[in-house]
Design goal:
The protein has 192 residues and is mostly beta strands. The chain folds into 2 domains: 79 residues, Immunoglobulin-like, CATH 2.60.40; 89 residues, Immunoglobulin-like (Sandwich). It contains 1 helix and 17 strands.
Length: 192
């Protein structure tokens, strides 16, 4: 038993040592800043990743969806909370998000939806047409959203070769091959 436990601990320690990070910057041409780009690993060979047990959350406050861009893994349930003193609605016209419509709901109420397919979908509010947000439903848990300066960091990526992709609500960028071994840098330029 002692030998088995030591082997498990050694295996876990070795796997942690064989993980790196991918970091860099995304430059968003023609935008005020470089926030809200999602950098993520494309699905490689291997098993699917289970969704988290805890739900992700998007708040509706001051007639704004917060956060504006939310990346999640396939199968994640997202809770939508209304923090405003008036009615809100959440819907998506995208087939990949099952064209859901959660109806209207009041302050302090929340409604949920499970995102079962990989996709990028807009979130809208029928009551307030100026409201818009985006959910990126991704195949792996290795993703990050850029800060205003375009920086991002994806931690604990197992060493190996991958395809790194980038998505933005308004711009396009090209995917890149990356070989992760410790700290790896990858930068992107986005344009229309």
């Amino acid at each position: 038993m002692k030998t088995t436990l030591c082997g498990i601990v050694l295996g876990l320690a070795t796997s942690l040592l064989l993980a790196g990070d991918i970091h860099g910057r995304v430059a968003a041409e023609g935008q005020n800043d470089s926030a809200d780009a999602v950098v993520y690993l494309a699905k490689g060979s291997g098993s699917a990743f289970p969704p988290p047990k805890e739900h992700a959350t998007i708040n509706q406050s001051s007639r704004i969806f917060q956060p504006h861009v939310l990346p999640v893994i396939v199968g994640t349930t997202v809770d939508f909370l209304n923090a405003d003193p008036y009615l809100h609605n959440v819907f998506s016209p995208e087939a990949c998000a099952d064209k859901f419509n959660l109806g209207t709901f009041g302050k302090g109420e929340k409604k949920s939806h499970t995102f079962r397919k990989e996709c990028f979908t807009a979130l809208l509010c029928i009551v307030h047409p100026e409201m818009e947000a985006f959910i990126a439903v991704l195949p792996t848990p290795y993703f990050a959203v850029t800060k205003a300066d375009g920086s991002y960091d994806i931690a604990n990526v197992p060493d190996g070769s991958y395809t790194l992709k980038v998505w933005h609500p308004k711009l396009k960028g090209k995917e890149k091959p990356v070989a992760v071994s410790g700290a790896t840098e990858a930068n992107f330029q986005l344009a229309r």
